[in-house]
Amino acid sequence: MGMKTFRSEASLLLISFLLLTACLSIIEAQQCRPSGKIRGRKSPSGHCNIENDADCCTQGKLYTTYKCSPPVSSHTAAYLTLNSFEAGGNGGAPSKCDNKYHSDDTPVVALSTGWFNNKSRCLNNITISAKGRSVVAMVVDVCDSTTGCDSDHYYQPPCANNIVVASRAVWKALGIPLNQWGGLEITWIDA
Ligand SMILES: *[C@@H]1O[C@H](CO)[C@@H](O)[C@H](O)[C@H]1NC(C)=O
Ligand SMILES: *[C@@H]1O[C@H](CO)[C@@H](O)[C@H](O)[C@H]1NC(C)=O
């Protein structure tokens, strides 16, 4: 093998290596890694609101926190949960986007921290699809993935990073039988 051939093969190898490294770092950047962990604290008795099956932090258990959510695509996969957005409901405080409560008969949602993206989707609509049906719902609140297990979060664990919390109007519009309300694989897209 002549020196010239060797050089061009070596540079081809180098270029391939650089390309591969670049691709891997792009994939890396798209992955959403945990930002930390918090240790569950027991809620003062009666302080964890267990309406709608919301679970309370278990003392000593480690909960993973996230500042990001999976990348948004044309059919972002998410897990739909149920909560109230009304005053006195399980949602607690007024919605972060407008500091208001919302009727559970209106299709409203809260998104995990990463998708909420520092209020960038506030009062915008998303289209939620499941089982061949879809519904347009307004983003009004965040489901905090960065912290939890404290009085501000009703002693509930941090939100997973792929959650769409929906009012009952959303569940109704999707035609989900009442006995299945609470947890469902869905996809969503900005409307
Ligand atoms: C969120 O938005 C506010 C207001 O636009 C800005 O001041 C703040 O730096 C942003 N925070 C992050 C983490 O991007
Ligand atoms: C979202 O949908 C609601 C109800 O249909 C509508 O009133 C509102 O204007 C929409 N928001 C945006 C930003 O398009």
Any key phrases for this structure?
binds 2-acetamido-2-deoxy-beta-D-glucopyranose; six-stranded mixed barrel; 2 domains; 191 residues; alpha+beta; two-stranded antiparallel ribbon; Barwin-like endoglucanases; 3 helices
In short:
The chain has helices at 3-30, 113-116, 168-173; strands at residues 36-39, 62-65, 76-82, 108-112, 125-130, 133-143, 163-166, 183-190.
Largest sheet: 6 strands, mixed, barrel
In DSSP terms, counting alpha (H) and pi (I) runs of 4 or more, how many helices? 3
User: What is the string of SSEs from the N terminus onward?
Assistant: HEEEEHEEEHE
Global shape:
globular
- Per CATH, what is the topology of the largest domain? Barwin-like endoglucanases
Tell me the quaternary state. Answer: single chain
Strand content: 25-35%
What is the distance, rounded to the nearest whole angstrom, between the alpha carbons of the first and last residues? 60 Å
Description:
Belongs to the kiwellin family. This is Ripening-related protein 2. Keywords: Secreted, Signal. Pfam families: KWL1. With 191 residues, the protein is an alpha+beta fold. The protein folds into 2 domains: 1-30; 34-190, Barwin-like endoglucanases (Beta Barrel). It is 20% helix and 26% strand. The chain contains 3 helices and 8 strands. It has helices at residues 3-30, 113-116, 168-173; strands at 36-39, 62-65, 76-82, 108-112, 125-130, 133-143, 163-166, 183-190. The strands form 2 sheets. A 6-stranded mixed barrel has the order 3-7-4-6-5-8. The longest helix has 28 residues, at 3-30. It is globular and about 75 Å long. The model has no long low-confidence stretch (mean pLDDT 87). Bound molecules: 2-acetamido-2-deoxy-beta-D-glucopyranose (2 copies). One 2-acetamido-2-deoxy-beta-D-glucopyranose (NAG) is lined by residues 123-125, 138. Residues 123-125, 138 line the site of one 2-acetamido-2-deoxy-beta-D-glucopyranose (NAG).
